[in-house]
Write a structure and sequence with these properties.
mainly alpha, 5 helices, 55% helix
Length: 82
């Protein structure tokens, strides 16, 4: 199923902005691991939060522990390895 998805149609700037806003419900212009977990109603636990925070660290250019929309966009559009 994944092979049939056209990423260029799915990962448009508009769709990414919608996804970012979905996660950043408070409109603080930044997301962290806890916000990602809360957005998907997952049970918060330290391991899951650590995984998301590790991902965020990879794209967090200013080192503030949260990612802004531009960093989120880069995360979604590039093949970052961990």
């Amino acid at each position: 199923m994944t092979a049939g998805i056209d990423k260029s149609k799915l990962l448009t700037k508009e769709n990414l902005k919608y996804a970012f806003q979905f996660i950043d419900k408070e409109n603080s212009h930044g997301i962290d691991g806890k916000k990602i977990i809360n957005a998907f109603h997952a049970r918060v636990n330290k391991v899951l939060e650590a995984v998301f925070n590790k991902i965020i660290i990879k794209v967090d250019e200013d080192g503030d522990g949260i990612i802004n929309f531009e960093e989120f966009q880069r995360l979604c559009l590039t093949n970052i390895t961990f």
